[in-house]
Amino acid sequence: MEHPPARPCPHLGGSHPVHRHDPRAAQALQDAQAALAAGRSVLLYPEGGLPHRKGAREAPPRPFHPGLFHLAHSTGAQVVPLGQA
User: Fold this and answer.
1) How far is C-alpha 22 from the chain's CA centre?
2) 62: left (phi over 0), alpha (psi -120 to 50) or beta
3) What's the DSSP call for residue 65?
């Protein structure tokens, strides 16, 4: 099920997009580190974002990118896995 109103929400409230395959990708991790240091929560999609699919059973999750693990290791932040269907 598509949720068009939810698509622009990440751009509200201080989100930091990851520009994959671009030097700006490192800035997203630095921004996330700063947010954690300020006591804020950070939401990451370790597989690189929401998949473009109609239903949860349509496609499996993609392989994880290493950013989440680098962030947790460098900050000591806890990782709480969530599922989104």
Assistant:
1) 16
2) beta
3) P
User: 35: which DSSP letter?
Assistant: H
Claim: this prediction has a pTM higher than 0.70: no
Q: Give the three-class secondary structure for 43.
A: coil
* CB-based contacts of 8, cutoff 8 Å, min separation 6: none
CA 85 distance to own-chain centroid: 15
Average pLDDT value over all residues in the chain: 76
**d(C-alpha 70, C-alpha 73), whole Å:** 5
Task: Find, among 83, 51, 43, the residue nearest to 67 by Cα.
Answer: 43
Whether pLDDT at 49 is above 60: yes
The answer to whether 72 and 81 are in contact (CB under 8 A) is: no
Residue type at 43? L
